[in-house]
User: What shape does this take?
Amino acid sequence: MMTDCRCFHKGLAVADDRACVALSCQTCYFGLANPRKMIEFYHVYMQYIKSQYALVDLCLSIEKGEFVFLTGASGAGKTTLLKLIYKAQTPVKGQILIDSVNINMIPKKSLYQLRRKIGIIFQDFKLLPRKTIFENVAIPLVIRGTKKNTILKKVNEALSLVGLTHRRNYFPLHISGGEQQRVAIARAIVSDPKIMIADEPTGNLDTELSIEILRIFERINAAGITIIIATHDKNLLRMFSKRTLRLEKGRMVQDEPTGELA
Amino acid sequence: MKLIRQAFANCLQNLVRNKLINVLSLAIIVFTLLIFSIFNFLTYSIERFSAQFSDDIRVIFYFKSDIPRENIDRLYRQIESHILVKSLHFKSRDQALSDFAREFPELNFILSEFDASPFPSSLEVIFNSPGDSRVTTDQIMNFIQDIEQNNIIDSRQINLEWVRRLTSLKKFISSVGFFLSVILIFISLFIIYNVIKINILYRRDEIDILKLVGATDFYIRFPFIIEGAFLGFLGSLFSIGLLMLLLWIFPHLSPVVSNIIDNIVIAATPPFYIIRNVILLGTGIGIFSSFLSIRQFMKE
Assistant: This one.
């Protein structure tokens, strides 16, 4: 079945038959790497301490351009799942494919190639306080060695998308929490990622600002970028009717395509 | 180019931001390299000083009186063919007499008292320089002792002892210098290692963000390696400057001692090879220790 295996031809991570054999799971309904899929989890287990699993036998599939909410109580495994996607953690068992690449096989020195496909947003924004808004947003482009003119153009575009062009020369500590989160979104979007991951992006914001932030995510999603947002805000889940995955004690307990969770 | 520019900008920023810790570490690096350069310079000076002497290593063998010329010729050929010998010159009794008469005309009245020349015939041997790696002062000394065994030799006159003493002094200074330098280099390595580690911890958030947005390991490491190299380089420049200042200021501070060693410390500035070695060593220490420091951090 090697002809069906796109990841084999990509060459970055899966370069031998073993990984492909592992992926053609007989019990799981997922098959070999699917070009329509952006994120695929195959029987993923994760544990931080020996006696306790953070994720148990997790199988999921997210298509390209999908908008997905990830919900569950604190400690359910939302952040762990997100960390597995950008390989801040490695599963103890199972396979994960991102854009048809088996990320378990990516060597540490090539990890940056995966990270460049993903824009990551955190609840605490993770902005550099000594750099201006413009400089913060420009970081992903600067590390790629992008030309100055292109940086200027793309950063301005990203800032205009989040409505912060007028704050470009401010420092993070001089703007509000909602604005800081928009800067973080601009930083995540500026390098045209394929996936955007947001871990409780509205956790520190009031409802009005949260809705505003979610609207920005919707606009970004409309451009074809796959979006996964971890949140436990039920109002937002109700308001934005999207596919919702619910985790409970590390297990996937519900996968609701319209967001109407029980 | 862009990366190098950025790395230098970051490096200067860090130096200014952590002034105290950087100044302290720089001081220790300067001290280390100063000790290294002082010992190197001393070794160099003694080498030059002893080279002056060693150009002159010569021995004069005086023959017993009434030795047949054939015996002297045989010894002449034996010495002439030896690898240590640069040149040799035989002086007969009559030649010695006429040389004396020429050099000290006022003493000619003494010579008139003698029927024959009162001077012994002699053989002056000039040796190759001990600076030549094939030749050592010990070899020369052994050779002279061998020749002395010959029963036609009455006595000898030699200037080798000074050279031997200087050579052993040079060896001693080199060993002490090497020993001290090795210890201080390890201390410097340890200090730069920790300074860079502090800078890394200070910029941990930035590094984490860089990792998350897809910076390569090299992109993250490079500025810290440049920082270490810059600290080492700056330290080496300061230590050379201090050495030059010491060489300049020393005669003014202590004229008496300075007069004594004035002949030994010939050069007023250190030679190029010492400057080059100090800069290479300083920069090398900086690069190596920062490399170790960031490597450990990237592993975590």
